[in-house]
Amino acid sequence: MSDGRRLNPLAIFSWVVVAFLLLPLIAIIPMSFSSSSLLRLPPPGYSLRWYEAYLFNSAWMNATLNSVIIACATSILSVALGTATAYGLSRTKWKGKALLQALILSPLLIPGIVIAVATYSVFSMLKLNGTFTGIILGHTIITFPYTVVVISAALERFDPRLEQMAVSLGATPLKAFAFVTFPIIRAGIIIASLFAFLHSFDEVVMATFIGGPATTTLPLRIWDGIRFELTPVIAAVSSILILISCAVIGITEVFNHRSRILAGEKP
């Protein structure tokens, strides 16, 4: 190049791989505006009829509402458990700590279908299959490890001496956590809640096993649509999910940037 800079082959290869992975997602968006009743690329014409079909269809709206309710409840439960677990692990040292951490993070390594089958077997005895409680608990099982990882990373950047100073000045451990620790790791907790929400909102395997007619989620409705009625409505809903995912990732990056600033790291 004229300015003396050289192209990095690894960077070029990385961008090619990213483009290859994103191309199918990008292709869905123009298909969602197709005027045809079939999934065609390029579309013969453009129309908003499939977004209208999604918004004014009670089955799609009920599935969307179910997903939002389940994802919100899962996010709250996962973050509450994840915060307590990550805080406890960061403040204790004992021989079985590594084994406990491996057990907590095991859902990240076990295939989702295995977890879903095992959860279905247990929940069938507890009569939780087909209920909102059951599907929320099922989603919590698979989102809980993510919250522990994210919040543990936030606690690693936190200086525990700040909390110890607050306790030495007369604050109770609960007040020290609420007024000293929590404000500093708040960005990490928000990031964990966003990841838990997004993961629960997009989960289809657990919903297939644990869910029922009254708890049909949006991803499960999409899966049924692909099997029985393949129309551009699927592309319209998928485009909306892509935009939601991008928005959540963008918000996550904002809070991650703020957490690094609070921790004294270079942005």
From TrEMBL:
The chain crosses the membrane at residues 12-33, 68-90, 102-123, 135-155, 176-198, 230-251. Its main location: membrane. The keyword Kinase does not apply. It comes from the Bacteria. It is found in: Cell inner membrane; Cell membrane. It is a multi-pass membrane protein. Residues 64-252 form the ABC transmembrane type-1 domain. PANTHER family: INNER MEMBRANE ABC TRANSPORTER PERMEASE PROTEIN YDCV. Belongs to the binding-protein-dependent transport system permease family. This is ABC transporter permease. It comes from Metarhizobium album.
